[in-house]
Each structure stands twice: as structure tokens, then as C-alpha cells.
Amino acid sequence: MGESSPSSTHSCEDSTISTSQELSSEETEPFNCSICLELVYKPIVQACGHIFCFWCAYQAMNVRKESHCPVCRRPYKYFPRVCELLHFALSKAVPEEYERRGREVQRTEEQKQVFSPRLVESPRQVWSPRSFDEAAGFSSLQSTPRGVAALTVNSSAGKITPASVLCSQSEDRFEDMGCARRDAAFMQKAVSVDDFRCSNCNDLLHRPVVLNCGEVFCEPCLKDTPSKVIYCPSCKAPHSGNSTFICLELNQFLEGAFPMEYSRRKGQHLAETIQPAYCENEPLGDLKAEKVLHVGVGCDGCGMYPIEGFRYRCVECTEKIGFDLCGDCYRRGGNVMGRFNQEHRPNHHMEQIQQRVHRPLDFNMHNSSIQRRRQQQQTANDLDDYINSFVE
Amino acid sequence: MLDVSRVQKELMEVERDKLSGVSIQILGSSLSHMQGTIEGPSGTPYEGGVFTIDIQLPSAYPFEPPKMQFITRVWHPNISSQNGAICLDILKDQWSPALTLKTALLSLQALLSTPEPGDPQDAVVAEQYLKHYSTYVSTARYWTETFAKRSSIGLQEKVMKFVEMGFSEDAALGALQSTGGDENAALEKLCSG
Ligand SMILES: [Zn+2]
Ligand SMILES: [Zn+2]
Ligand SMILES: [Zn+2]
Ligand SMILES: [Zn+2]
Ligand SMILES: [Zn+2]
Ligand SMILES: [Zn+2]
């Protein structure tokens, strides 16, 4: 994942030609990841509102500095948690395709021995009205049997274009080569309002914003954030960046799936003028003299990646990915769940990790970039081994 | 390990969208080496030409950019007239995993229509572009005529011609692909071993 070194034949400066190009993906299927070009699995919604798979988002991050969204290039510093609402909604809307993606991802995880978080449906969804009905034996019109959505996924399969001769894989491989198209209308029928409730007002989401913790709120529900930093109203985790962007893809889906309810919600919020929450300072705006940069290591608490400043590593967690916290999250304490599959407990012993890379944050220092480069090169070799184990 | 599934999806998308004027061919059995072609944009000195680009995929693709280099010789400030090396930000630090081989090839096509002489790959061409623009245009057009014009017969027919001359089909195809379909250069290559 490191920066590629320019080859010797290149005489031009690295980054002056700018191709002001839209990075939007070719695919128009709903909830496609624009990195793997497949249905998103364990969706991560970045602060800009773009959706990627857990592993695609993880691998797309810059190990040494702030990362940029692969689609819109907005910068971000946190690796968000999986958006569980979207995860469970997709597993209902396109059960077969989603399960197939799950099997694929699991195979890769077993090969590499690093694992994404195991997700269990939260109690909130369990006591929702629809589930209550179902438990009582009333199946509502909204809930569709699993087979129905699957039917559409397969319906247009079988049309094999010449290039698919390239696919030397098994038969069910052909479907995921894009021969079968995901149908938004059918996905919408397999889910209900209960699958898309705001973590704050518990009503149908309107202009959904996914925070760094993976929870989803109506944009107007986040408007009253008192401080400059946006904190999640329910779990208090800090959000990446100083403004919120709605998840357009989810918004579009909701509008199509629940036109009546959606316009009712729209009317409710119309009284208040909708403005994006905005503040002047970055949450991590403390750009004092020098901070330690822990290349390729993220905080399991807030998701900061890479960790800047203090870093603590659990000495008892045995998972390959390890368990790390930034200084703030370590001081805050409490029961922090890992961003992967770690079975970390609050009583685990944690150790402060010695400084490895100093990154002077003085932008005017002339030789700082040279120094930085030299230091990065020194650590590059052992880091690359570490990083490659995830990237490959 | 190369994300084979993603690369296959990309190739199918290119296959599906014939109108883009972009095509990609696989070389060899792995998906790590291929060849792309783009059409010269109309209204430019590259109009009417078909340009072949060598594409190598690093194992970390799409998290690292593909390596691209012109095989067809081209007279352009941002492309080396010697070895076809390309100066384009998205093939370097501005690469994003949301970009594809197709979008990269389309960017090369865009680069052909909008040279950036201020950030040259080929200093000689860039200087000519800035100081003697009309000479640049005629040189670029001449190079297009000479190196980038495909003769009317297709690749398969060219291969058959070589087979009739006694070369194996694989060797003929390989030689033609590595020379961007230039029969004379391919013959030279076949004869030199
Ligand atoms: Zn993905
Ligand atoms: Zn984005
Ligand atoms: Zn709300
Ligand atoms: Zn939260
Ligand atoms: Zn933290
Ligand atoms: Zn632990």
C-alpha cells in the first residue's frame, strides 16, 4: 500500500497534471462497492457518505497519513465502524447475493488470518413492531420471503458476454461477474421501514447521515450538536471531519422504497431549514509542535488511522490484527469493542508503544519533508512486511 | 495477490461498452499483463490513429495504479517519444482504487487532446509545442500517420499471413501484439528470433 516509487524514465514532477475527473464508478447497481465492483459487504460509510466494503475501505486507507475517499477524494482520518443498519438491511433485501459475498470474504479472511467483526442483530431491531408482528404470527405485506429477492438476482443471468469466457471459475462465478443485475425495486420490497430507523428519533430515516460509529441518523437529528466536534448522540464517539454529508445512495433507496413515509418525514423536517452541521475546527485540531505517527496502525476505539500521538497496545489480545487505542480512547476507558474480530476485555493489560516515527507538523519547516522521507524510508521495510500481510 | 474477480469485471465492462473506443486484450495466461488501445481524439493531430498501450498490473492492484506505457510511438509533450513513458497524475499519486483500466485509458485519450507542456515527460516535444506550435502539430500528425495508422486488414488476417510464411500462430500473434499491429516491425521481430 506504500507510495509507488517513480520509475527512472519519468522526468516529470509527480503531481502537476490534474485530470479533473469524476471518480464515479461505471456500475449503476444499487449498493455496489466502487472498489471491488461487487455488492458491498459489511458496509463502511465514510464521512462523505460513500459506501465501501469493510476490507475495501481498510485497504484503501493511507498507512502514513490522512486518507482520501476513493470516489470524491475528501480527506478523512477515521476508519468508521461497519454500518450495521445497512448490513442487516442488505442481508434481507438480497439474501442470496449477500450470503455469497459473505462466504467469499470469509474464505479470504481465513487465508490471511485477519477477521472483520462478527455482527449480531441489535435488540433495537428485535423489539421493532414488525418483528413483533412476525413473532405473533402476522406476516405483513412488507416482509417478503427470502426467495423472492433471490429470484430477481438470478433472473437475468445466463447472458454470457464474450469476455466472460475469461472467467475460468465455477458456474456461480458467472453471476457475480455482473451478468445478473441487482434490481432496486425488488430490493425495496424485501425490506420495511423498521429496517431503516434513525438512532435518535426512531422514525424512518430522512436524509440519512452515517457517523464514524456506524450508527445512522436523520441529518436534522444531528443539527443541535453543541460543540465544534460532532459527537454521536447515542454512543458519544467523535465523528470524522467537521461537517456531515448524507449517504446519497441510502437516501435514494429510502425515497424509492417508502415514498409515502419519506415525504411525511420530509414535511416534518421542512419547518426547520436544513443546513449541514458545520464548524470551523477539525476534531483533532491540536497541531502542536510534534506528534508521533504510528504508521499503519489504527485506534480500535475512535478509528483514527494512522494513530497520531500516544498509542497503547493490548498485550493480551492474540488476534493477528492486534488491539490498539489512541491516547484519548485509552484515557476514556470503558468497554471498547475492536473494529475487527478482537475479543478484547476491559481488564486486558495495555502497554504504551514506543515512538517510532516522528512527524513534525510544522508546515513551514524547510527540511521537514526531507527528514520525514528519510525517517519513513527507515521504517518502510519492516512496515511493508506488516502491511503486505493485509494488502495481499 | 491480484484481485482477479475485479479485473475480470473490468474487462467485461470494457467488452460491453463498445462505444467508448477503448479496448483491452489479455497477454499470456495471467491477468497481470495486457494491452489496451485507444483511438486518437478527433480534432487533434492524433485523429485517425489507434494507439496501443502496454498495461502491467501490480499485485496490489487496484490499491496501486496500473503501470501503463505507450507501445505505439507518439509525439506528445507528456509522453516520451523514446520509450512511451507517460506523465499523468492518476497513474501515480492521484490514483484511486475507484478508477478502472477503462477510466485510465480514457484519461490517456483526454491527455492526447489536452497536452500539458508545463509538466513535460519529453522536453524536446514540450519545447517544440511551446515555441513552434505548427511544427509540433505537423510532427505529431506525421507520427500518427506513420506509427498509429492501422492498415485495413485485421489482426487475424495479419496472423494468417505470417502463418503462411511459416511462423507459428502464437509467435505471430505475440509479435504483432508487442508491436501494436505493425506488420513490418513484427516481421523484424520474428526474424530476429
Ligand atoms: Zn468492496
Ligand atoms: Zn467520498
Ligand atoms: Zn432522526
Ligand atoms: Zn454512535
Ligand atoms: Zn481513539
Ligand atoms: Zn485485549
Automatic annotation (TrEMBL), chain A:
Secretion signal, residue range per the UniProt entry:
none
What InterPro entries does the database record attribute to this sequence? Znf_RING, Znf_RING/FYVE/PHD, Znf_RING_CS, Znf_ZZ, Znf_ZZ_sf
Q: Which UniProt keywords apply?
A: Metal-binding, Zinc, Zinc-finger
Residues forming the RING-type domain are 33-73, 198-236
PROSITE patterns in the record: ZF_RING_1 (PS00518), ZF_RING_2 (PS50089), ZF_ZZ_2 (PS50135)
List, in alphabetical order, the GO biological process terms annotated in this UniProt record: proteasome-mediated ubiquitin-dependent protein catabolic process
* Polar residues bias (residue ranges): 1-10
Query: Keyword Metal-binding on this protein?
Result: yes
Mention one GO molecular function: ubiquitin protein ligase activity
Q: Which Gene3D superfamilies match?
A: 3.30.60.90, Zinc/RING finger domain, C3HC4 (zinc finger) (3.30.40.10)
Per the record, which residues fall in region Disordered?
1-23
PANTHER family membership: BIFUNCTIONAL APOPTOSIS REGULATOR (PTHR15898:SF13)
> Can you say what this protein is called?
E3 ubiquitin-protein ligase PRT1
UniProtKB/TrEMBL annotation, chain B:
Residues of the active site are: C87
The answer to whether UniProt assigns keyword GTP-binding to this entry is: no
Instruction: Cite the Pfam families for this sequence.
Output: UBA, UQ_con
In the UniProt record, does the keyword rRNA-binding occur? no
Top-level class of the enzyme under EC nomenclature: transferase
Q: Which Gene3D superfamilies match?
A: DNA helicase RuvA subunit, C-terminal domain, Ubiquitin Conjugating Enzyme
Its name, as the record gives it, is: E2 ubiquitin-conjugating enzyme
Q: What is its EC number?
A: 2.3.2.23
Q: Which residues form the UBA domain?
A: 154-193
A single GO molecular-function term is:
ubiquitin conjugating enzyme activity
Keywords assigned by UniProt, alphabetized? ATP-binding, Nucleotide-binding, Transferase, Ubl conjugation pathway
Q: Which residues form a coiled coil?
A: none
Family in the record: Belongs to the ubiquitin-conjugating enzyme family.
Q: Which organism is it from?
A: Adiantum capillus-veneris (Maidenhair fern)
According to the entry, every stretch annotated as the UBC core domain falls at 2-149
